[in-house]
């Protein structure tokens, strides 16, 4: 895959709605070219056809998540507060790009076979959350867990499924408010659990 010029990259987001509606298998490269205004030859030059388009879009969204989560986890607050901010950050990015999330749901099996995206998710989310878990033990805002990697993966899974479900409902009038509402429920589950108080 060649480096995609920024001017073309921004136009590729127009393909997300098309892929969300039809699925990748039901979308032709001619359709992508038409909706984005990018010539088919240019798409093939920079990307590996429609698979490359989906891979680019998901990679770009992961970059956005990485930036938002990075800002959230680097604050001066205690680790618990920064973990809550990371939940809101990821959900906000997802709800700002509902068509891309719907495309992801439609082609989840295909996405799972992209090892570079798996590595990107690990670096984007798992590692910062694992660090927050350790920092939370150190600052007293979070308890020690036996397996931080599994906990980080579970946090990511909870956020991702909630975000994908909300995005599948369609565009949101106020993505930030909806992200905050979802984040409150997820944070309650993650941080307080379901056990009764003893």
From TrEMBL:
Keyword S-adenosyl-L-methionine: no
Swiss-Prot/TrEMBL keywords: DNA-binding, Transcription, Transcription regulation
UniProt domain HTH tetR-type: residue ranges: 5-65
Domain of life: Bacteria
Gene3D superfamilies: Homeodomain-like, Tetracycline Repressor, domain 2
A Pfam family annotated for this UniProt entry: TetR_N
InterPro entries, per database record: Homeodomain-like_sf, HTH-type_TetR-like_transc_reg, HTH_TetR, Tet_transcr_reg_TetR-rel_C_sf
rRNA processing keyword on record: no
Protein name: HTH tetR-type domain-containing protein
Regions recorded as binding DNA: 28-47
